[in-house]
Design a protein that fits this description.
This protein is about 40% helix and about 25% strand. The chain is of the alpha+beta class. It folds into four domains: about 170 residues, GAF domain (Beta-Lactamase); about 110 residues, Beta-Lactamase (2-Layer Sandwich); about 70 residues, Signal transduction histidine kinase, dimerisation/phosphotransfer (DHp) domain (Helix Hairpins, Orthogonal Bundle); about 150 residues, Heat Shock Protein 90. Strands 6-5-10-9-8-7 form a six-stranded antiparallel β-sheet. Strands 12-14-15-17-16 form a five-stranded mixed β-sheet. A four-stranded antiparallel β-sheet has the order 2-1-4-3. The N and C termini lie far apart (about 100 Å). The structure holds adenosine-5'-triphosphate (ATP) and magnesium ion. The site of magnesium ion has 5 residues, from helix 12. Adenosine-5'-triphosphate binds next to helix 12 and helix 14.
Length: about 525
């Protein structure tokens, strides 16, 4: 059985070459270990072999490859998987404990294995696995068998280490990818030619570009500005020499121009974005990537615009009634004039009405700020009589307007409901004041109630100017007034319907409106649960 030493050296070299080739051929770890094991067993004319690896996470051992052992017998080798400390220079020694275990295995597996050679696979200073080569019957290993196999064990260790590194990198890549994908901020990575290589989901939502469509395109194809709030955008900054060594980030903000072929268009047509570009440099000061972090500032900008509207509307709306009241009061106080009782009465009525307007406005503002602060609470009582509430609102408005005829139509048995009386009064005030304000030529205003088994409805119908269809979604928004001649002429903050809707919804009700089909004007209807 003894082969000439030269033969063995040649054979060893051939095996090593094959293994090296396999190492670079991206074979999977299992195939590679099998190849190494086969080479090891054949080189020393063994009968069978087995590679055992230490699992890094659990430190337990598992069989990673077998050769010459039928699969159903592999389990019998478990005694060899139990800890058997390895000491350097032990390869050739007969370790009594190992011999004992091997005998145990031989007995169970009935393979006639009698001797084992054990080689450690070492990576760094750690034993990461063991190669076993078994001999049967009376055959013995040649003296330098362990030495001959040493290079195979080294190759196996390298293969395992590479595979584990590869796996780690892959996992890290997956993890980073998931973080980018889940980030609430938009993230985009550009290569030095400004082509997009990463484009996450949040950014896709902001821009309307599908990641698959955006990746590979040039940055300027995707990021187009309608208007800029910062001095320059990325192309301009690059022209001006950005990034300088030790570069600062570049911040660009403005209104984003959505692409016509974006896969979806959001409700609001204005999207404000803020993008921070961070250059990634290599050791030679060359830019390898740009990482762009994108924030959606639309909500923030809207809030800002709303604040501005708020201030201008409020200052205007507060000023008007105050100056009317002041004007009338000043006139009435003149010492040199004697006012007829009719003029006196008329003037005082105007003062009273304007004071009411002021109170209403202040109430509305307070309610709106309560809604915003989240301290808007209803004071629910159980027997609210909507018919009575409506009658008293109608009476109040009836005396204010000579041009309108207000009628109230409720069935006799209209039920009482649960609700906040003061707030529901506010709702009626708002709807009635609108009905009057927006029917400048006068006409009939009909308020009618209907009872259903679970809920009641109340509608306010006017013969006014109506509401254009395309404006319908706007009128319940905060501070929104329709842009028509009448809105410009009449007073109002655009809070009335916003609050009305909030109050009705706080009662678990609904509010909507329709333009009348049998004549001009609008009918606003709300429904409230009976309990
Ligand atoms: P405020 O109620 O705060 O004094 P406002 O009446 O202008 O101000 P809303 O009651 O919220 O505000 O109404 C919003 C807008 O909807 C109005 O400016 C008006 O253009 C339109 N609108 C409301 N009610 C009617 C209606 N009955 N007919 C026609 N347009 C209406
Ligand atoms: Mg109003």
């Amino acid at each position: 059985m003894a082969r000439a030493l030269v033969d063995i050296r040649v054979l060893q070299r051939e095996y090593l070459l094959a293994i090296t080739r396999a190492l670079t051929a991206e074979l999977d770890l299992h195939d590679l270990l099998r190849l190494i094991l086969q080479a090891s067993v054949e080189l020393v004319s063994g009968r069978a072999g087995m590679i055992v690896l230490v699992e890094p996470s659990t430190e337990s051992m598992r069989v990673a490859a077998v050769y010459g052992i039928p699969p159903h017998l592999v389990d019998h080798f478990s005694p060899l998987l139990k800890d058997l400390p390895y000491r350097e220079g032990q390869e050739n020694e007969v370790i009594p404990e190992m011999t004992r275990r091997l005998n145990e295995v031989a007995l169970k597996a009935d393979l006639g294995l009698t001797k084992a050679l054990r080689l450690p696979m070492i990576s760094g200073k750690e034993v990461i696995g063991l190669i076993y080569v078994f001999q049967s019957g009376t055959y013995v290993f040649m003296d330098d068998a362990a030495k001959l196999l040493q290079s195979f064990a080294e190759q196996a260790a390298i293969a395992v280490k590479n595979a584990r590194l590869y796996q780690e990198i892959n996992q890290e890549k997956l993890r980073l990818g998931a973080i980018l994908e889940q980030s609430a901020d938009g993230v985009m990575i550009l290569n030095p030619a400004l082509h997009i290589t990463v484009f996450n989901r949040a950014l896709s939502q902001m821009t309307g570009w599908q990641p698959g469509d955006a990746i590979g395109r040039h940055h300027d194809e995707i990021v187009r500005w309608r208007s800029l709030r910062t001095d320059s955008d990325l192309p301009q900054a690059l022209k001006n020499g950005w990034p300088l060594p030790g570069a600062a980030h570049l911040y660009v903000e403005g209104d984003f121009q959505r692409s016509e072929n974006a896969y979806y268009q959001p409700v609001q047509d204005r999207v404000s974005l803020g993008i921070t570009y961070a250059p990634l440099m290599d050791g030679n000061g060359r830019m390898t990537n740009i990482i762009a972090n994108v924030r959606d500032l639309t909500r923030y900008r809207e809030e800002e615009a709303l604040q501005k509207t708020f201030i201008s509307v409020v200052s205007h709306e507060l000023k008007t009634p105050v100056s009317i009241i002041k004007g009338y009061a000043g006139t009435l106080r003149r010492q040199d004039a004697h006012w007829s009782p009719e003029i006196l009465d008329e003037s005082l009525a105007v003062i009273e009405e304007e004071a009411d307007n002021l109170t209403n406005l202040i109430d509305n503002l307070l309610e709106a700020s309560r809604l915003q602060a989240g301290t808007f609470n209803l004071e629910i009582h159980e027997d609210i009589n909507l018919a009575k509430l409506t009658a008293s609102a109608a009476k109040k408005f009836g005396t204010q307007s000579g041009k309108h005829h207000i009628s109230v139509e409720f069935p006799q048995d209209f039920p009482t409901i649960y609700g906040d009386e003061r707030r529901l009064g506010q709702v009626l005030n708002n709807l009635l004041s609108n009905a009057i304000k927006y029917s400048p030529d006068g006409g009939n205003i009909i308020i009618s109630g209907t009872a259903h088994s679970e809920h009641v409805t109340l509608s306010v119908r006017d013969n006014g100017i109506g509401i254009p269809k395309h404006e319908q979604h706007r009128i319940f928004q905060k501070f929104s007034r329709l842009d028509n001649a009448l809105s410009r002429k009449t007073e109002g903050t655009g809070l009335g319907l916003f609050l009305t809707k909030a109050i009705i919804e706080a009662h678990n009700g609904r509010i909507w409106f329709t333009n009348n089909t049998d004549g001009p004007g609008t009918t606003f209807t709300f429904s409230l649960p009976r309990n």
